[in-house]
């Protein structure tokens, strides 16, 4: 085939660097925005934090190009300060986070008089235990890893012996490979001085599958015990922890989540007051010294000397980048406020008292149509953003829900149906829990058109198990 050339006209849509920067800033919540602004201030020399009014009265110091270009040749006496007297002493600051769970386990192993080989193997086993306190890897795989990483040939039997020592450590149940072993290890460290405890151990040892599946009638028949005795045994099992790693509370990791709201909403005397939370977000501006430096180097004729050309181009690129960044921050502020105000207008009845039954059905397209923004932009705004109200801190994404239609043709939020489901399950007879089909009939009787598979979906979203697993005696 002959090789030929031809012209093709095509239309492509590409994002500019400014648009990409704006999109990335729009996705950031308040805490990450603060870190991003501080990072930009460190990277861009012409950006600085907005000073207080009392500091703005000072005249900006002049900086020359020659001094800027000789920045690396600064004498040593200019790069340090002497604000200390001879009587001052350097006092180190000690930061402690407490012992982690692996450190606590290794400390206990130190009192077991293990050989050097056993201690190395036990240390590797402890390192393989996850945060919940389980060892979820088979011992053959652990033995292979030890041979490759530590260089010690071992077997599953030897590791089983050392794992038995770890099972005797605190917290009780640590190093278990499944839930049954975890519960039995915890019971092994308790005195079997009562009949319910002995009965609970027998259930976990011989009838664990029936217990998990809640075949209570079958269990009582096989054990030949009364309902009261069976209830006491179940109460003993419920006192055990399914996650032994959570029993250790001295660890150095802080698991308490802290949420910084992005919006502040106040409702008083029938009026809403919405504001953007910018308490810890620094305001930035362009340092005027560099603007003056550019004017000095360019001169009145608009020409730049050859020796200053590189410095002018460098400073000018930094100033342009700073202007883009400041503009993106302002655009982010406007987009967030515009979107949140539209959500507030749409869900005004809900924001008055926080009653979820007053939530109107709302999807991303509803807000996009009212703001004139794209659906993807609305998605970025509501993702990982929170609003602080008089009734708590609310995740914006949780305000969006599907629309369900009643027999009368009225559209209601799926939250209303979830609330009815929750109420029905809370009030049900735990001896005979309501099935999904029964819940569907109840909702249909109330005028909500809903299928059984939709009931199952909403039940799973609420974290409620099936009827068989909700059964109690």
Automatic annotation (TrEMBL):
Residues 313-472 form the RNA polymerase sigma factor 54 DNA-binding domain. One of its GO terms (cellular component) is DNA-directed RNA polymerase complex. Residues 96-290 form the RNA polymerase sigma factor 54 core-binding domain. Residues 48-59 have a biased composition (Acidic residues). The keyword Transferase applies. Residues 48-83 are annotated as: Disordered. Transmembrane segments: none annotated. One of its GO terms (biological process) is DNA-templated transcription initiation. GO terms for molecular function: DNA binding; DNA-binding transcription activator activity; nucleotidyltransferase activity; sigma factor activity. The keyword Transcription applies. Keywords: DNA-binding, DNA-directed RNA polymerase, Nucleotidyltransferase, Sigma factor, Transcription, Transcription regulation, Transferase. Belongs to the sigma-54 factor family. NCBIfam families: rpoN_sigma. PANTHER family: RNA POLYMERASE SIGMA-54 FACTOR (PTHR32248). This is RNA polymerase sigma-54 factor. The gene is rpoN.
């Amino acid at each position: 085939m002959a090789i030929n050339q031809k012209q093709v006209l095509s239309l492509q849509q590409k994002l500019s660097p400014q648009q990409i920067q704006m999109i990335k800033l729009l996705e950031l919540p308040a805490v990450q925005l603060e870190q991003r602004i501080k990072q930009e201030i460190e990277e861009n020399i012409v950006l600085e934090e907005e000073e207080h009014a009392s500091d703005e009265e000072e005249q900006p110091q002049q900086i020359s190009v020659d001094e800027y270009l000789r920045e690396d040749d600064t004498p040593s006496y200019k790069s340090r300060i002497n604000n200390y007297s001879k009587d001052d002493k350097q006092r180190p600051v000690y930061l402690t986070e407490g012992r982690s769970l692996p450190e606590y386990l290794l400390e206990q192993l130190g009192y077991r008089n293990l050989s050097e080989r056993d201690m190395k193997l036990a240390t590797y086993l402890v390192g393989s235990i996850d945060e919940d306190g389980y060892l979820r890897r088979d011992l053959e795989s652990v033995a292979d890893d030890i041979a490759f990483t530590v260089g010690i040939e071992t077997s599953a039997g030897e590791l089983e012996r050392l794992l038995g020592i770890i099972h005797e450590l605190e917290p009780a149940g640590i190093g278990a490979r499944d839930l049954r072993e975890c519960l039995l290890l915890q019971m092994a460290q308790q005195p079997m001085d009562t009949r319910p405890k002995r009965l609970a151990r027998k259930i976990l040892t011989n009838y664990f599958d029936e217990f998990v599946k809640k075949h209570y009638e079958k269990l009582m028949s096989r054990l030949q015990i009364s309902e009261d005795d069976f209830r006491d045994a179940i109460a003993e099992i419920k006192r055990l922890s399914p996650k032994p790693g959570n029993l250790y509370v001295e660890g150095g990791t802080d698991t308490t989540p802290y949420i910084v709201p992005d919006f502040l909403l106040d409702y008083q005397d029938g009026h809403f007051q919405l504001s953007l939370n910018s308490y810890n977000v620094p305001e930035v501006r362009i340092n005027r010294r560099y603007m003056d430096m550019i004017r000095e180097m360019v001169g009145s004729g608009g020409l730049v000397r050859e020796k200053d050309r590189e410095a002018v181009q460098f400073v000018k690129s930094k100033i342009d980048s700073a202007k883009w960044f400041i503009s993106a921050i302002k655009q982010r502020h406007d987009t967030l406020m515009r979107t949140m105000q539209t959500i507030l207008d749409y869900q005004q009845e809900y924001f008055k008292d926080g009653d979820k039954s007053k939530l109107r059905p709302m999807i991303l397209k509803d807000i996009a149509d009212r703001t004139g923004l794209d659906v993807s932009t609305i998605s970025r705004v509501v993702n990982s953003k929170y609003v602080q109200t008089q009734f708590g801190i609310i995740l914006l994404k949780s305000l969006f829900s599907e629309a369900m239609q009643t027999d009368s043709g009225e559209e209601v939020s799926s939250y209303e149906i979830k609330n009815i489901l929750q109420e029905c399950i809370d009030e049900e007879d735990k001896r005979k829990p309501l099935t999904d089909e029964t819940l569907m009939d109840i909702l249909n009787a109330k005028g909500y058109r809903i299928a059984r598979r939709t009931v199952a979906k909403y039940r799973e979203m609420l974290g409620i198990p099936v009827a068989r697993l909700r059964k109690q005696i």
